[in-house]
Amino acid sequence: MGIFGLFNKKKKETLNQGLEKTKQSVFSKLSRAVAGKSKVDDEVLDNLEEVLVTSDVGVGTTLKIIERIEERVARDKYVSTAELNSILRDEIAALLAENNTEDHENWDLPADHQPYVILVVGVNGVGKTTTIGKLAYQFKASGKKVFLGAADTYRAAAVDQIKIWGERVGVPVVSQQMGADPASVAFDTLQSAKANGADVVLIDTAGRLHNKVGLMNELKKIKDVMKKVLPQAPDEVLLVLDGSTGQNAFEQAKQFSAVTQITSLAITKLDGTAKGGVVIGISDQLKVPVKYIGLGEQMDDLQLFNRREFVDSLFQHES
Fold this sequence. Notes:
Layout: H1 3-18, H2 20-33, H3 42-54, H4 59-76, H5 84-98, E1 116-121, H6 128-141, E2 146-150, H7 156-169, E3 173-174, H8 182-195, E4 200-204, H9 212-229, E5 236-242, H10 247-259, E6 264-268, H11 278-286, E7 290-294, E8 302-304, H12 307-314
């Protein structure tokens, strides 16, 4: 087995282990939903609806999945309960595809955007700065020159944390004193990154939501200032969400979407929760693609999201 085969095997093992709690929860509920039934009927569909809702897929997305399965049952006339896993895989993968969620295989970036600028948003405590550190590690490991910007200037701990990650990964961090203008930090970061031939820039922002107007104005100012250095910046606005919070993650996603345009999602802490279904629901409800998922504490436990691998792992029954 070559090095890429070993890498893919490790990635798949990490994914399977990271989703184990969700998988066990979903399978135990599915088993009860189809108990004593040989075919998918109205009762099974009602039970399946409850399984998906209680697995944090979300009501709106659940109803969409149920409707698709109902259409399939009506078309095929007879669908056995043994086929349910396969049907769920197909329909959920199709939903994720419709939300422009791509199957990312490597850490390549568009060649025409250099540096590629990612503005990272999310409330405190979701793993935002840790995600930035892990992204920096992955990009550097793939041969990219990375710069970090510490634009969460409202908490000394946030600046210190991103500096620690910079040292750990071995990438430069641009920062100013606590309380400095976040837009000024973003401006300095992009200027430095551009001057030093960086490939990718990750900029941290303050994780506040209690004042939506203030947050909206701050993010707008950061974006406007970025464009003075790089007209296309930011290339990506990445929202980091804690998957273990289930429906609370939905609410955070909605609130952030109301104040700024989110272009991609990172769902963290999936290894410690049975709420992995939230990945499906958030992407579907926001129409924003999931790009990264966090499956553990190690540097390489942050993975590029692959919808087919995710769905296959979620519905892979270990006999």
